[in-house]
Amino acid sequence: MITDSHVLVSGAVSGEVSGVINELESVKKQTIGGRFLVSGKINDTDVHVMVTGPGIVNTVQALTAAIEHKRPCLVIQTGCAGAFRQSGLQIGDIGIADQETCVHLGIEPENEEQALEELPFSLMTLDNLNIKHSYPIKPEPVRKAFDILSETFNICRIKTGPFITVSTITATDKTAERLYRQFAPCMEAMEGSGAAHICLYYNLPFLEIRAASNYVGKRDKKTWNLPLAFKRCNGAVWEILKNFDKFGGFAG
Ligand SMILES: O=C(O)c1cccc(C(=O)CC[C@H]2O[C@@H](n3cnc4c(=O)[nH]cnc43)[C@H](O)[C@@H]2O)c1
């Protein structure tokens, strides 16, 4: 594996990363693992941007291919997400994950209102970690990203908190309430736990930065704002990449 110090940015669909791609200088395009990868520079930082396709399976395949091709110094996953109303986040606001949980991993409970029981085996054991369904995220990059955005991106709320990953988009208020009771997440999306798994596996710093396109729960398309979420998540990632050197990198 070739080691280099670029930042790898991933999004499930092109709108989630196209704003970052448009800011790249000295652009190169290639296909890695069957995925579209664009590389270039933002200020002096080398940046690779990849569209992974939606969901955990696409994410894991695409990130594995990109990391095996060239090891990054940081992975940033971005995109839109559902915001939990109870978290205080509103449409267009930014969330930064400090933990990722795959809500589908566990043993089915007798009563569907109860939380899943923990898996009787580990998904991954690394050092003292025994991963069953939740992934810790290294706090230092999260704190630095929060500080950068608080200073440079004061057009919306920015919140750090737990995220959950689902394979079925939550579409009832009842399920949204149950998930909030069980995990107290600020955001729900479909890729984060896959990226967190890969970054832990390869011992890479990981940031998940998303903008809320909708509230989690009963679907009311009138209140959704995908264009705003795309604009904000691209803008937030761009601010971090522009300020990457000034804040001393993310290797911590
Ligand atoms: O066209 C649509 O109806 C539509 C609805 C939501 C998202 C899209 C996208 O193009 C982005 C896919 C991406 O969005 C994430 N996402 C956004 N909101 C939620 C949610 O409430 N629950 C779970 N995932 C959400 C997800 O990560 C998808 O990959 C188009």
Automatic annotation (TrEMBL):
<dbReference type="GO" id="GO:0009234">
    <property type="term" value="P:menaquinone biosynthetic process"/>
</dbReference>
<comment type="pathway">
    <text>Quinol/quinone metabolism; menaquinone biosynthesis.</text>
</comment>
<dbReference type="InterPro" id="IPR035994">
    <property type="entry name" value="Nucleoside_phosphorylase_sf"/>
</dbReference>
<feature type="domain" description="Nucleoside phosphorylase">
    <location>
        <begin position="8"/>
        <end position="232"/>
    </location>
</feature>
<comment type="function">
    <text>Catalyzes the hydrolysis of futalosine (FL) to dehypoxanthine futalosine (DHFL) and hypoxanthine, a step in the biosynthesis of menaquinone (MK, vitamin K2).</text>
</comment>
<keyword id="KW-0378">Hydrolase</keyword>
<dbReference type="GO" id="GO:0009116">
    <property type="term" value="P:nucleoside metabolic process"/>
</dbReference>
<dbReference type="Pfam" id="PF01048">
    <property type="entry name" value="PNP_UDP_1"/>
</dbReference>
<dbReference type="GO" id="GO:0019284">
    <property type="term" value="P:L-methionine salvage from S-adenosylmethionine"/>
</dbReference>
<dbReference type="InterPro" id="IPR000845">
    <property type="entry name" value="Nucleoside_phosphorylase_d"/>
</dbReference>
<comment type="similarity">
    <text>Belongs to the PNP/UDP phosphorylase family. Futalosine hydrolase subfamily.</text>
</comment>
<dbReference type="InterPro" id="IPR019963">
    <property type="entry name" value="FL_hydrolase_MqnB"/>
</dbReference>
<protein>
    <recommendedName>
        <fullName>Futalosine hydrolase</fullName>
        <ecNumber>3.2.2.26</ecNumber>
    </recommendedName>
</protein>
<keyword id="KW-0474">Menaquinone biosynthesis</keyword>
<dbReference type="GO" id="GO:0005829">
    <property type="term" value="C:cytosol"/>
</dbReference>
<dbReference type="GO" id="GO:0008782">
    <property type="term" value="F:adenosylhomocysteine nucleosidase activity"/>
</dbReference>
<dbReference type="GO" id="GO:0008930">
    <property type="term" value="F:methylthioadenosine nucleosidase activity"/>
</dbReference>
